[in-house]
Specification:
The chain is of the alpha+beta class. The chain folds into 3 domains: 71 residues, Dna Ligase, domain 1, CATH 3.30.1490.20; 117 residues, ATP-grasp fold, B domain (D-amino Acid Aminotransferase, Chain A, domain 1, 2-Layer Sandwich); 149 residues, Rossmann fold (3-Layer(aba) Sandwich). The chain has 12 helices and 18 strands. Strands 7, 8, 9, 10, 11 and 12 form a 6-stranded antiparallel β-sheet that branches. A 4-stranded antiparallel β-sheet has the order 1-6-2-3, with helices on one face. The protein has a 4-stranded parallel β-sheet with strand order 14-16-17-18, with helices on both faces. The radius of gyration is 24 Å and the shape is globular.
Length: 379
């Protein structure tokens, strides 16, 4: 679960990291009142769970409360990379001499966390890493050892950060472990003329599996998230919206990821990641298909299921059930293999829907879905 910036900075402040004074507003009038309380001059920042807000017009300086009100009015309701702005954060401006990047991220392959730091903060770290890789330090963190003072000093020195940054690195590690986070990032961490280190922007991703320990954040915020993501989450589905045209449904995260790669390898772009899980019922399959078909950017849907706990005939029953309640206007390519695959294919053959095709292999299904994605007529 990604937190909004104002939530992330709240966590940082609780763990002793300095952040600018700030308030959150859901209306232009509230934004003006916030600016007045913060001294007039503020930074107005759209609260959306995506990067690149500044380039998209989601971060603006306001010289006075009237300007803050105007900028908030323009931002609220606007679309930033597919996210609707429903709140803005107004923060005190900070005079800085330099900016840095610091973060911890889970390295699943190595089964440990990785500290990433750079003296070139305030920029997209991906761009810095691509153009000047030596400017980005990557230091493995032993989960048993954690971040000791000597380890924090090592991370700071390897990235060219001031020695005072070691305190921030230790505090940031505490955020990671105490809050069940998978990612904590500060960009930029700035140094003021008075020598203070202040986090101007923060990103925190919490582990969904630890929600029961992080109850204060509540359930997924359906008001802010993509509507399809919120609707899928309410039905217990793992769904992520992507920027493509081929809807993808599978059972098991690994199989879905492989399907996304197969679609991309055939020259098409996946429109989503949707995992119906290992024990999905016909109802779950129907729910998943309804979510994907509700995306207007989808021009073709690929269902790739390997039957195990989830039997293929149950998947086929779910597809048939979905066709009874959802008018199918987009081609549907289905690949079924494994437990009860023959029975499942027979169920779909008997339904004989003109827009449903069966494929024998995953690669064949991806190839056909890519073809249909660009040529499918609307029925």
């Amino acid at each position: 679960m990604d937190l909004y910036e104002h939530q992330a900075r709240e966590l940082l402040a609780e763990h002793g990291i300095l952040v600018p004074r700030a308030e959150v507003a859901a209306s232009a009038a509230e934004a003006r009142a916030c600016a007045e309380r913060l001294g007039g001059r503020v930074i107005v920042k759209a609260q959306v769970k995506t990067g690149g807000r500044g380039r998209a017009g989601g971060v603006k300086r306001a010289a006075d409360p009237a300007a803050a009100e105007l900028m908030a009015r323009r931002m609220l309701g606007a679309d930033i990379k597919g996210h609707t702005v429903r709140a803005v954060m107004l923060a005190e401006p900070v005079v800085s001499e330099s900016g840095f990047y610091v973060s911890y991220v889970l390295d699943r392959a190595a089964r440990r966390f990785l500290a990433i730091a750079s003296a070139r903060g305030g920029m997209d770290i991906e761009d810095v890493a691509a153009t000047c890789p030596e400017a980005v330090a990557r230091v493995p963190v032993d989960p048993a050892e954690g971040v000791t003072r000597s380890r924090a000093d090592e991370i700071a020195a390897s990235a060219g950060l001031p020695v005072e940054a070691a305190d921030v690195l230790i505090a940031l590690r505490n955020v990671l472990t105490c809050e069940d986070a998978l990612l904590v990032e500060v960009n930029p961490l700035v140094r003021t003329p008075q020598g203070q280190l202040i986090a101007l922007d923060a990103k925190v991703t919490l582990d969904d599996n630890a929600r029961f320990r992080q109850a204060r954040w509540g359930a997924r915020d359906a008001t802010y998230d993509d509507e399809r993501e919120a609707g899928a989450a309410a039905k217990g589905l793992t769904y992520v919206k992507l920027d493509g045209e081929v809807g993808v449904i599978g059972n098991g995260a690994g199989l879905v990821m492989a399907t996304l790669d197969a679609v991309a390898g055939r020259g098409a772009r996946p429109a989503n990641f949707l995992d119906i899980g290992g024990g999905a019922s016909a109802q779950v399959m129907a729910d998943g298909l309804a979510v994907v078909l509700g995306d207007p950017s989808v021009t073709c849907v690929l269902v790739n299921v390997f039957g195990g706990i989830t039997a293929c005939d149950a998947v086929a029953d779910g597809i048939v059930r979905a066709l009874e309640s959802v008018r199918l206007t987009k081609p549907l390519v289905v690949r079924l293999d494994g437990t009860n695959a023959v029975r499942g294919r027979a169920v779909l053959d008997a339904r004989a829907h003109p827009l449903v095709e069966l494929a024998a292999t995953m690669d064949g299904a991806a190839h056909r879905a890519a073809e249909l994605a660009h040529t499918a007529p609307v029925v």
